[in-house]
Amino acid sequence: MIEQKGTMTDPLSHPQWLKAFVELYSQLGTNNLGLIKQVYHSDVHFSDPMHTVKGLDNLLHYFEQIYQHVTSCQFQIDHTFYQAHEAAIYWTMILCHKKLNGKRPITVQGHSHIKAENERVIFHRDYLDLGAMLYEHVPVLGYVITRIKHRASKP
Q: Model pTM greater than 0.70?
């Protein structure tokens, strides 16, 4: 579920392609990944800290892979900014993964930069702390990362 709070622009004034993007992420799950075909352009360029994917079929395959071990994923939209055919969306994701954090929720803040062409998202880049989402919740590795962060923060 996506909640919008404190948006910098009125969601009612958003262009249709941006409304469709926000709506997509309010309902996206393992059983309806095909919905991305309604929002993304066939030549979409998608990147996040783990992968870069080009083309709608490749994006769908990537989502199928990453959602494979996800038991739930919810997005809260914190702020949106848009101008013409591009937008910045600041969000909080609450993720439950079968293999991370003892299956307990993981909260990650991030943002997406998206661009539209012909009323479809053709460019999507996610910015987030991959350590907070993934590495810190892997047994042994999480402990090592926590120790490194602790040592790095000492004067």
A: yes
